[in-house]
Amino acid sequence: MSLAEGRALPRWRRPESMLILMAFGSMLAFSTWMAVAANFIIEVVHFDGSDNGWMHTVREIPGFLAFLAIFIFALIKEQTFGLISLFLLGFGSALTAEFPTLQGVLVVTFISSLGFHYFETVAQSLQLQWLPKAEAPRILGRIVSAASAGALVSYGSIVLAWEFFDLSYRTIYWASGGFCMAVALVCWLAYPQFRSDTVQRKDFVVKRRYWLYYALVFMAGARRQIFTVFAAFMMVELYGFHLHHVAGLMLLNYCVMIFAAPLIGRVIARRGERLALIVEYSGLLTVFLFYAGLYWFAWPWEAAAALYVVDHILFTMAFAQKTYFQKIADPEDQAPTAAVAFTINHIAAVFLPALLGYLWLVDPASVYSLAAAMACVSLFLATLVPRHPEKGRETRLARGPLAQPAE
Q1: Which residues are within 8 A (CB) of 20 and not within 5 positions of it... i.e. 6 or more apart?
Q2: Whole-angstrom Cα distance, residue 389 to residue 280?
Q3: Does the CA dihedral 26-219-260-157 come out positive or negative?
Q4: What is the DSSP string of 327-382?
Q5: Residue 196: inside a domain
Q6: Which residue spans within 34-110 are E strands per DSSP?
Q7: What is the pLDDT along the chain (407 residues), one digit of tens a residue?
Q8: What is the DSSP track for 94-150?
Q9: Overall domain count for the chain
Q10: How many CB atoms lie within 10 A of CB 407?
Q11: Residue 213 gets which letter from DSSP?
């Protein structure tokens, strides 16, 4: 079914509705894993900072191998592959508490991560292909809002389950993973196969004119690891947060994001990607310096919690990278570049968590100082994004749109 035909279907069966439902299911499973992981690995498996770093290194390997999705796209349709990956994410998440050893956690983490990263690769590709450029920031804002709602359900359920029903880690993981698998099956049965307007290339696409996008993606991946790997871990290790405390803090994050993400999308549509990225990286620079201050000045847990919420909101603005690329790219480059970009995003992710895990054992504040330096580099790159990016004007260093050949 073509996209035009799909947009004429009832609202709940349209392409963007499928993207929203998949985002809800994937984020519910992933958020549960993230919320419970810090307490599970410390209280049950007895991880230290180094073990935690190795777990996240293993978790990022499938992201580094995302470029292999290009070969899979040649064999099966992207939409089908995305749903298979979504199901695998749920399956791996459900198994997490079944193997409470270092080796067991690493194996099931790899399985769930395989599903998550390939699903995200496909989702990004489909978003760029299915969403009109003029509407993309607003719809992406709604997709992020739906993902936040999935996370909200996850964390709300964890707080209730842990505080009032004393459910086990196993029950929590199976509930979230099972729901994610159910969403994949519903999408498989309820939605037709949508056909993109442009046939996607089935080979590697690395173009010189996309260099700024690649650089932004690389730095985002390196910087993101410090938030993903160490933020919740710090809350548990430094301040002794219990599971329902961590989940409650994340609950607050996503309550804010349900309303903030659509607003951010409208701002990007009106003011452009350059402003959004500059605000994001300026804010992250400040937040990471204050994170280091938690160790330098022994600030209370309230300061850490506030930084965590602000940090999360700023990271959400990163979908401006997607709409920036959509504006400068050739339409047939969307799918292969999504796979290549995911690999670029995870180059640093493969080795940084393990290395920073060792640095964490010596001086946790230095980890956040390094993150602040990364934010500085990203801020400089953001200043090179044009106010109105397009093909031929990918950076402020470019002279203008490419000349069209004579008829």
Answers
A1: 142, 143, 146
A2: 18
A3: positive
A4: HHS-GGGHHHHHHHHHHHHTHHHHHHHHHHHHHHHH-HHHHHHHHHHHHHHHHHHH
A5: no
A6: none
A7: 778 888 888 888 888 899 999 999 998 898 888 778 777 888 888 877 677 778 877 887 887 788 888 888 888 888 999 999 999 999 999 998 888 888 888 899 999 999 998 998 888 888 888 888 778 888 888 888 888 888 788 777 777 776 677 778 888 889 889 999 999 999 999 999 888 877 777 677 788 888 999 999 998 887 777 777 777 778 888 888 876 777 778 778 778 888 888 888 888 888 889 999 999 999 999 999 999 999 898 888 888 888 888 888 888 788 888 889 888 888 888 778 878 887 888 787 777 777 887 888 888 888 889 889 999 999 999 999 998 888 888 888 866 554 444 43
A8: HTGGG--SHHHHHHHHHHHHHHHHHHHHHHHHHHHHHS-TTTHHHHHHHHHHHHHHH
A9: 1
A10: 3
A11: H
Q: Report residue 156 CA to chain centroid gap.
A: 20
CA pair distance 178, 87, nearest whole angstrom: 9
**pTM above 0.85?**
no
* Dihedral angle computed from the Cα positions of residues 350, 352, 356 and 357, in that order, rounded to the nearest 10 degrees: -10
Of the candidates 298, 246, 295, the residue with the CA atom closest to the CA atom of residue 43: 246
Residues 194, 3: contact at Cβ < 8 Å?
A: yes
CB-facing half-sphere around the CA of 97: CA atoms within 13 A: 21
Q: Are 65 and 114 in contact (CB under 8 A)?
A: no
Residue 260 belongs to some domain of the structure? yes
Where does residue 209 rank: exposed (0-12), middle (13-18), buried (19+ CB within 10 A)? middle
Identify the residue whose tokens are 């607050």. Answer: 252
Whichever domain contains 298, its CATH number is 1.20.1250.20
Whether 402 is in a domain gets the answer: no
Half-sphere exposure of 12 (CA within 13 A, CB side): 3
Let me know if residue 271 belongs to a domain.
yes
Residue 98: count of CB within 10 angstroms of its CB: 12
Residue with tokens 């997607």: 322
Rounded Cα–Cα distance for residues 145 and 139 (Å): 10
In terms of residue numbers, what domain contains 71?
13-191+208-382
> Amino acid identity of 374?
M
